[in-house]
Amino acid sequence: MKIEKVILRRLKMDLKFPFQTSFGTQREREFIITEVQDGNDVGYGECVVNSNPYYNEETVQTAWHIMKDFLIPILLQKEEITHPDEINELFKQVRRHQMAKSALEGAIWDLYARKQGKTLAEVIGGKKEKISVGVSIGIQETKEELVEIVGKYLKEGFQKIKIKIKPGKDIEMLQAVRDRFGDIPIMADANSAYTLKDVQLFKQMDSLRLMMIEQPLAHDDIIDHATLQKAIQTPICLDESIHSLEDARKAIELGSCKIINIKIGRVGGITEAIRIHNLCKEKKIPVWCGGMLESGIGRAHNLAITSLDNFTIPGDTAPSARYWDEDIIRPEIEMDTEGNIELPKKPGFGYEINQTALDRYTVETEAFSK
Ligand SMILES: O=C(O)CCC(=O)C1=CC=C[C@@H](O)[C@@H]1C(=O)O
Ligand SMILES: [Mg+2]
């Protein structure tokens, strides 16, 4: 492959619902779609950043700057790229900025798959034909509202219910769901809202028999998580703390978690995501694919990575209709009544671009060539 042109598009899409987490409420999604071109062949990726640096330190503006001024020039200068695995190494001089790196790396994986006439899942090494799907529910005002919304999603078939929590909106909310629905697969995501001072609360939560608690402690911690994991039975799942294979190795060695949420953007791309998956498989740590409220393009990349066999827990990979009135791909991603999504069969990420929708949501475009 020779990357001759790169296009960045900044998009704004309204979410169908306000999404509340321990760090705020989100009503729209602002992010970047990347396109790489090699002659007539194209590949697409999604930069899953937010407009604010609340989930991680990157924003739409920092990612645009890092791609424009550092990463894209590296790609355009490169005479030949044989395999997308080389991108990690090419970008190595730029520290962190995982979501910016991942957005370009993902587009190159898509381009590579299309050139081979294979699906993204196939070139990644995934064998599944369909994947199991869960849903991530934002913090609700009351127990009654939460119970109602959980009921709705269970009826739709979702195989895992993830409930966002924060101090004051935790054990009682979760208990209400447990009491109403019995032994369903539920988990909680705290987005770093607690400290070790809350260890008693987490011990109490053991009686809820949650599948896991996601990122209870600081976003940059693996030490306190190890202490907490020793004190409780519920498995801890790390999200924000894991940015690389090295982070995963250290967390596993310390016993900081029993499960890892892999987000392609958070770990700097598909290549690193595969490496983390493989390490976790070897260490018998199950993984699942987290979501960043992606559009269809990022979502399709998530489906592809989930086709790897150690993704044994349903991911936050809900269908398009949960988030958008109209997605930017065709057909939209759909889930069956048992909570499964079938992997697409077309080359690359497997869906067509809905160009009219893509243009409608685009607020800024910039193209780069040699
Ligand atoms: O894409 C989805 O449906 C998952 C949404 C979700 O849970 C998250 C999206 C973005 C940032 C976080 O709040 C979060 C997470 O922590 O996993
Ligand atoms: Mg999370």
TrEMBL record:
The molecular function terms of the Gene Ontology recorded here are:
magnesium ion binding; O-succinylbenzoate synthase activity; racemase and epimerase activity
Output the InterPro entries linked to this UniProt entry.
Answer: Enolase-like_C_sf (IPR036849), Enolase-like_N (IPR029017), Enolase_C-like (IPR029065), Mandelate_racemase_C (IPR013342), Mandelate_racemase_N_dom (IPR013341), MenC (IPR047585), OSBS/NAAAR (IPR010197)
Q: Name one Pfam family in it.
A: MR_MLE_N
Q: Which residues does the annotation say bind Mg(2+)? A: 189, 214, 239
Recorded metabolic or biological pathway in which this protein acts: Quinol/quinone metabolism; 1,4-dihydroxy-2-naphthoate biosynthesis; 1,4-dihydroxy-2-naphthoate from chorismate: step 4/7; Quinol/quinone metabolism; menaquinone biosynthesis
Catalyzed reactions per annotation:
(1R,6R)-6-hydroxy-2-succinyl-cyclohexa-2,4-diene-1-carboxylate = 2-succinylbenzoate + H2O
Q: Which cofactor does it need?
A: a divalent metal cation
Q: What is its EC number?
A: 4.2.1.113
Domain of life of the native organism: Bacteria
Q: What region holds the Mandelate racemase/muconate lactonizing enzyme C-terminal domain?
A: 143-235
**Does the UniProt entry include the keyword Cytoplasm?**
no
Instruction: Keywords in alphabetical order, please.
Output: Lyase, Magnesium, Menaquinone biosynthesis, Metal-binding
* Catalytic site positions: 164, 263
A GO BP annotation: menaquinone biosynthetic process
> Which protein family is named in the record?
Belongs to the mandelate racemase/muconate lactonizing enzyme family. MenC type 2 subfamily.
PANTHER family per UniProt? O-SUCCINYLBENZOATE SYNTHASE, O-SUCCINYLBENZOATE SYNTHASE-RELATED
HAMAP family linked to this entry: MenC_2 (MF_01933)
Q: What does this protein do?
A: Converts 2-succinyl-6-hydroxy-2,4-cyclohexadiene-1-carboxylate (SHCHC) to 2-succinylbenzoate (OSB).
Q: Which NCBIfam families match?
A: menC_lowGC_arch
The name this protein goes by in its record: o-succinylbenzoate synthase
